[in-house]
């Protein structure tokens, strides 16, 4: 019996995890991004639309709808920015690719065009004095403040993604006993392994936090509120909220997120002369093009150095 596009949802997610080898987190993102297309289908009474009946006009109307969709994160009347629209369209393109892989008639994937960026992607990062204000803003005399200081220091020292951070267990730090700094392997986005490094400062605060722990939960970073019959592991949202909290407390003029600390980590390395290929390894990027988003951040510094030291400027 023919199936509608929406009915292929679970089949596609399983395909991504099993045949494409994508991580569960990526699978969840695809589910979330595809849900917008399914919402659009339902709003237009197309919930029974089968893959072979999907037309270029459907795609165009969906793109128009996306461009006008209110940005729930920014709480503005403006539509979604092009990069966010692209995520939704890439997920849809992936679904069409699945149909072709399974010999299910459908539009070619190239019929889904991605919106052009209206401007160069802006990377938000913190200057060292702003970082210091943020990292030192928790009250370490409280259990919550001590945990939060350890989290902020870890994010900046390692460049971990927030999902990678909350997935850490106490056992991962077992080898750090008696050491002033520490390195460990993590499996990141796309099951791509890399080594991350805890500075002496970051490790100090993590150890100090662990000394206060009286529970037996395996998670490295735990919450203090919520149901007692569930894992105490701190959630991604919990880390996002605490970073926003301390950004306000420290008075930095940036809407900081955990990823802002990752950006700051990468920018700090580049500003100190680390080769971009090495930064790529530190961040766990599969492709160098992903890392190159940071190069324009350091271009002004390079111009200043060139102006100061290049002989041609002194002739």
From TrEMBL:
Residues 3-100 form the Core-binding (CB) domain. InterPro entries: CB (IPR044068), DNA_brk_join_enz (IPR011010), Integrase-like_cat_sf (IPR013762), Integrase_catalytic (IPR002104), Integrase_recombinase_N (IPR010998), Integrase_SAM-like_N (IPR004107), Tyrosine_recombinase_XerCD (IPR050090). Keywords: DNA integration, DNA recombination, DNA-binding. Residues 121-307 form the Tyr recombinase domain. GO terms for biological process: DNA integration; DNA recombination. It comes from the Bacteria. Gene3D superfamilies: 1.10.150.130, Intergrase catalytic core. It holds the Pfam family Phage_integrase. One of its GO terms (molecular function) is DNA binding. This is Tyrosine recombinase XerC.
């Amino acid at each position: 019996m023919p199936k509608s596009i929406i009915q292929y949802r679970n089949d596609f997610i399983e395909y991504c995890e099993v045949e494409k080898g994508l991580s569960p987190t990526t699978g969840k993102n695809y589910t979330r991004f595809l849900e917008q297309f399914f919402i659009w289908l339902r709003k237009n009474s197309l919930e029974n639309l089968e893959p072979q009946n999907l037309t270029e006009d459907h795609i165009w109307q969906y793109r128009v709808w996306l461009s006008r969709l209110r940005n729930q994160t920014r709480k503005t009347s403006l539509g979604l920015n092009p990069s966010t629209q692209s995520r939704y369209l890439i997920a849809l393109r992936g679904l069409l690719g699945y149909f072709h892989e399974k010999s299910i008639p459908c539009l070619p994937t190239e019929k889904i065009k991605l919106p052009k960026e209206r401007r160069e992607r802006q990377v938000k990062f913190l200057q060292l004095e702003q970082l210091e204000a943020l990292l030192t803003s928790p009250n370490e005399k409280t259990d919550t403040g001590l945990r939060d200081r350890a989290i902020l220091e870890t994010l900046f020292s390692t460049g971990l993604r927030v999902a990678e951070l909350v997935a850490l267990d106490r056992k991962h730090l077992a080898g750090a006993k008696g050491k002033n700094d520490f390195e460990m392997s993590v499996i990141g986005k796309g099951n791509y392994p890399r080594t991350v490094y805890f500075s002496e400062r970051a490790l100090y605060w993590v150890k100090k936090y662990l000394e206060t722990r009286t529970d037996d939960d395996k998670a490295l970073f735990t919450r203090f509120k919520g149901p007692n019959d569930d894992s105490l592991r701190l959630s991604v949202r919990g880390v996002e909220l605490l970073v926003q909290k301390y950004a306000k407390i420290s008075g930095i003029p940036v809407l900081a997120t955990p990823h802002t600390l990752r950006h700051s980590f990468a920018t700090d390395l580049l500003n100190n002369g680390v080769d971009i290929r090495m930064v790529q390894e530190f961040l766990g990027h599969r492709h160098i093009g992903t890392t190159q988003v940071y190069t324009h951040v350091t271009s002004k510094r390079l111009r200043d150095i060139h102006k100061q030291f290049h002989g041609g400027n002194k002739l």
